[in-house]
Design a protein that fits this description.
There is one protein chain. The protein is an alpha/beta fold. It has a single domain, classed as 4-Layer Sandwich (Nitrilase/N-carbamoyl-D-aminoacid amidohydrolase). The protein is 24% helix and 26% strand. The protein is globular, with a radius of gyration of 19 Å. The chain binds D-[(amino)carbonyl]phenylalanine. The site of D-[(amino)carbonyl]phenylalanine has 10 residues, from loops.
């Protein structure tokens, strides 16, 4: 009996700064119901799915920044998602800005959770690769201050058993790092859930902006193929506060093929029936890690970045 899971990638169109969480949750509920109607047992929402992509602004006042964070999950505004998930019997993935108070210390992460069909949070991941910069850079048409507003994730790259297989999560920039996918791959991951908010313009190298969509799919296909896993990648897309975000949400098979792709820059659901047993076609042969990997040669990969390269990072170039 094949282990198949019907998954929905629920791409979102833009969220403007003034749009409150309640209105956003209404849009998520429409997509969740549509996913259920289309036979999905899991629906994947984007990164930072509750608000506009606020790292595009420099905000000196911390309380202005913290207004974009969730101190509790579920919160009153997001509780309807958990109630509806339980009612419909569908799991969901949600990206949001997490504020955690521990004693009198405050920690802030770019977070994703996996919620099961009973509405219980069964998995959490905190974004490890934070792109952009940590101080105001006036040369930029828009800022990308994830390094200022978030701490690097402290949960590693965990996998969990869900939906009949091994599931992992990455967030946005993580997908560009083969190490992130490979740590999941070495744990036998069969389904990787990824939300992203990716600007269409790449200010540090504007001539490469024409490649932003290509690099998105290149990263996802490589990660899927080189680790023999399904990948469900979901954008928040469209023009947010004058800043264009790419779409291109897609579902990628373990062979690296895009089997479903969004066509708009709006709220759009795409679905696919993911046969988890197809992962073995890759994991058991071309990327049979037990038989073919040579980790005794890979020490550099997990060593600190060589000094020479650290020195060469000249000022003002996005890291
Ligand atoms: N966004 C972007 C991403 O990695 C980026 C940042 C854009 C990096 C384009 C490099 C090129 O998709 C987030 N949120 O990580």
């Amino acid at each position: 009996m094949a282990r198949t899971v019907v998954v929905g990638a629920a791409q979102m169109g833009p969220i403007q700064r003034h749009q409150g969480r309640e209105a956003v949750v209404e849009r998520l509920l429409v997509l969740m119901r549509k996913a259920k109607d289309e036979g999905c047992e899991l629906v994947v929402f984007p990164e930072l799915a509750l608000t506009t992509f606020f790292p595009r602004w420099y905000m000196p006042a911390q309380d202005e920044v913290d207004a974009f964070f969730e101190e509790r999950m579920p919160s009153p505004a997001t509780q309807p998602l958990f109630v509806e998930a339980r009612k419909l019997g569908i799991g969901f993935h949600l990206g949001y800005a997490e504020l955690e108070r521990v004693g009198d210390s405050v920690r802030r992460f770019n977070t994703a959770i996996l919620v099961d069909r009973t509405g219980r949070i069964v998995g959490k991941y905190r974004k490890i690769h934070l792109p952009g910069h940590d101080s105001y850079e006036p040369w930029r048409p828009f800022q990308h201050l994830e390094k200022r507003y978030f701490e690097p994730g402290d949960l590693g790259f965990p996998t969990l058993s869900a939906h009949g297989g091994t599931v992992g999560m990455l967030i946005c920039n993580d997908r560009r790092w083969p190490e992130a996918f490979r740590v999941l791959g070495l744990q036998g991951v069969e389904l990787v859930l990824i939300g992203y908010n990716t600007p269409a313009l790449y200010p540090a190298a504007p001539s490469n902006s024409r490649l932003v969509d290509y690099h998105n799919h290149l990263s996802l296909k490589a990660g899927a193929y080189q680790n023999g896993t399904w990948v469900v990648a979901v954008a928040k897309a469209g023009k947010e506060e004058g800043c264009d975000l790419i779409g291109g949400s897609c579902i990628v098979s373990p062979t690296g093929e895009i089997v479903a792709e969004a066509r708009t820059l709006d709220d759009e659901l795409i679905t696919a029936e993911c046969d988890l047993d197809r992962c073995q076609d890759i994991k058991g042969h071309i990327f049979n890690f037990a038989r073919h990997r040579r980790p005794e040669n890979y020490a550099l990969i997990s060593a600190p970045t060589p000094q020479a390269q650290l020195a060469s990072n000249h000022k003002g170039v996005a890291k």
